[in-house]
Amino acid sequence: SAVISQKPSRDICQRGTSLTIQCQVDSQVTMMFWYRQQPGQSLTLIATANQGSEATYESGFVIDKFPISRPNLTFSTLTVSNMSPEDSSIYLCSVEGARGADTQYFGPGTRLTVL
Amino acid sequence: GQQLNQSPQSMFIQEGEDVSMNCTSSSIFNTWLWYKQDPGEGPVLLIALYKAGELTSNGRLTAQFGITRKDSFLNISASIPSDVGIYFCAGQAAGNKLTFGGGTRVLVKP
To answer: What angle do CA A113, B83, B6 make, to 5 degrees?
Structure first.
């Protein structure tokens, strides 16, 4: 499986600021995904990061709040904008496996705390 | 939308015990995945199941894709302390989206 890294691994931010999270993969992948994991909860898909086009957002998530970039097949960023304490979560990127997006592998996550 | 009911929500294990957890859905899935998440880490894929009835092992772990395509279970045999963590099931129906269960928190008996 691909090796996935995320930066930063954790951060503490002030309300009203924005944070950009990076996801780097060691091989080219077509599908990349961003998930949110609120404290003590399961994973919720935020959006699919599409290379060369706008991300596809899930219900309840909007581009103004979570802008995503996907400049190439190995890299993506997720920005959490105008943060509030409710945005405190772990943010995870995932990539498809060799047989496609029915198997996904996750990065180590970015633990975000908003004060 | 689709929902996965994962049970139990938590369980205590004693070293050497066999434990089991399962996921059920009201709708059909084409793929079932089982992940383990340790504190401060991302979920790690343990087992992937792609066909109804499929039974797959990975060391002491065994998982099955239910014949109705609406359920899956994961067994851990002869548990050891490092089995502690949170286990998530995930299913995929049409398209690329994975739906996750609520997780089973595995703890060590005091």
So the answer is: 70
Confidence of residue A25 (pLDDT cuts 50, 70, 90): very high
Task: Answer whether A42 touches B (CB < 8 Å).
Answer: yes
Residue-wise pLDDT for A82-115, tens only, equals 999 999 999 999 998 887 767 899 999 999 999 9
Measured CA to CA, the distance from residue A1 to residue B45 in angstroms comes to 10
Per-residue pLDDT tens over the stretch B67-82: 999 999 999 999 999 9
Which CA distances in Å does A21 have to A32, A68, A86, A90? 14, 10, 17, 11
Separation between Cα atoms, residue B39 and residue A70, nearest integer Å: 28
Please provide the distance, in angstroms rounded to a whole number, between the alpha carbons at the two ends of chain A: 36
Q: Region B15-42: what's the mean pLDDT?
A: 95
Q: How far is B96 from chain A (nearest CA, A)?
A: 5
Tokens of B86: 């949170």
| pLDDT of res. A15 | 97
CB distance from A7 to chain B under 8 Å?
no
Contact A35, A44 (CB under 8 A): yes
Q: How far apart are CA A96 and CA B96, in angstroms?
A: 9
Backbone phi and psi for residue A19, each to the nearest 5 degrees, phi listed first: -135, 135
In this complex, the residue of A102, A105, A109 whose CB is nearest that of residue B31 is A102
Chain A residues within 8 A of B88 when measuring between CB atoms: 42-43
3-state DSSP assignment of residue A87: helix
